[in-house]
Amino acid sequence: MVQPELLPQGFVLLVTDESKAASLEHPIYFASSINGWNPADPEFVLSPRSDGKWQIVIDDVPANTTIAFKFTMGGWDREELDGSGNPIENRSLPKVDRSKLGPDERPVLEFSVPEFRTPVPMAEEVRRTGRYRTLDVTGDIRRLEVVGGAGGAEAMMRDLLVWLPPGYSDPANAGRTYPVLYMMDGQNLFEAVPGLPSEWHIDETATELIERGEIEPIIVVGVPHAGEHRLREYLPFGSIQGQTGDGDAFVGWMTREVMPRVERAFRVKSGAENTAIGGASLGGAIALYASTKHPDVFGKVIVESLPMLHDDGKAARDYLDTVTVWPGKVFVGMGGREVSNHENDAPRNAKYRAWAEELDQRLAEAGLGEDRRRLRIDPQAHHNELAWAERFPEAIRFLFPAQD
Fold first, then answer.
1. Per the confidence metrics, is the pTM higher than 0.85?
2. Are the C-beta atoms of residues 215 and 402 closer than 8 Å to each other?
3. Is there a smaller number of Cβ atoms within 10 Å at the N or the C end of the chain?
4. H or E element: which one contains 142?
5. Of 57, 92, 116, which residue sits at a domain end?
C-alpha cells in the first residue's frame, strides 16, 4: 500500500457532485497544498464526463509530498461543504495497492461532494467587474482568497494580497521561511486607489531595503478592508457615528481564518517574534488592539495616526489601562497636521500629537526601552498615505532589522 503521490505515473480523481451545482460556467477545481490553495487554478480544473462525474489527472507531484486538498467551484466562497452545510476538514488521498496496478496504470480515486457553498452577491460582483486583473506591483504578489470577517462582513469574500520577498521562489530558498507582516487596508498598500492621494509603496520600499541589506526578507500580507463594514470591523473600543465596533470578532477571524490560510500557502516563520501587524487610522487602532490582546501571536506592531475617536480617546485609554503585556516592538507614527492645515484646527492637531506622546509614555512606563518602542512625529504630515509611506521605511527597519 502506497500513497498515490509517490506513484511516478500519477493518479486520477473522480468527483461526484451530489448537488448538481457544477457546470461548464462554474466547473470544479482542485485547490491544494501543491498549488498554493488557489481555488480557481486553471491548471487544476476538473473536466465533466458523460457519466456526470468530474475528472482530473494529477501526474506532476513534487517529490516527497503529501497532498492536502479541497474541491471548489472557483472560489472559497464556493468551497465544498458537508451534508449539513459546514466546511469540511482538508482532504487527503487514501493509500492504494500498487500490486493491483498494471505497468504505468493510474489508480482512480473517487470522491463525493454533497454540496458547495452558495456565494454571496458581492462575490459575483467581484467576478463581474473583473477585479482579477494583473496588479501593477514591484516584485511577486499573490492573491489568496478568504471568506469571512466581522461587523456585517461575516459572509464576505475578499482576496489577501501576499507580497513575497526577492528570492522567495528561488530553488536555493525552497526550505527557507520568512517573518510576516499583516497590514490592514490592503487595497492601498501596493497600488494607488482612485480617489486617494497615494499608496504606501510597501512593495518598492521593502524590495529596496531587502536588496540593500537593511532589513531581513519578509512576507507582507495586505488584508483588504470590508468596504461599508470597515468601521465596525476595525473599531475595537468606543463608538463612531452611533456604531459600536466588532473588533474582537475581527481579530478572532484574523487568528482563526486568515493566518492559518497564509501559513498553509506560504513559508511563514512561526512565533510572535516573527509576526507583526500594522495599519493606519482605524487600521492602526485594530492593529494596536490585536497586538495587546494577543501579544503571544502578534509580537510587533505598526500604529499609524491612531484616532482619538469621538470621545477624545477615553475609550482607548480605558482599554489601555487594562493592558498588562505589550508586544515585543511597537512603532507609533503621527503627523502634526492630522486634522487639517487650517489654523483653527491647531488645537485638535496638538491633541493628536499629545495622544501619540501619551501612548509612547505608557510604553515607557510599562518597561519598553528604546529597543522596543519607537515614536515618530512629523510636524508637517497629514492623515494620508503619503505620510504613512514616508514613515514606513523607519517602521520596517525598526521591526525587522537585518540579521547578523
1. no
2. yes
3. C
4. strand 140-147
5. 116
All 3 cell numbers of residue 305?
495616526
1 contacts 97 by C-beta, under 8 angstroms? yes
* DSSP SS3 for 316: helix
Domain of 158, CATH number, reads 3.40.50.1820
Q: Residue 389 falls within a domain, yes or no?
A: yes
Give the Cβ contact number of residue 293 at 10 Å: 21
- Pair (88, 128) in one structural domain: no
| pLDDT tens figures, 178-208 | 999 999 999 889 987 655 668 999 999 999 9
Write out pLDDT tens, residues 318-348.
Answer: 999 999 999 999 999 999 999 877 777 788 8
130-133: long-range pairs with CB below 8 Å, 24+? 131/159
Distance CA 40, CA 31 (A): 7
Domain range for 29 is 4-116
What is the spatial distance between Cα 325 and Cα 230, in angstroms, rounded to a whole number? 27
Residue 353 placed within a domain:
yes
Cell of 12: 486520477
Asked whether residue 145 falls in the same domain as residue 74, the answer is no
What are the backbone dihedrals phi and psi of residue 178, each rounded to the nearest 5 degrees, phi first?
-135, 145
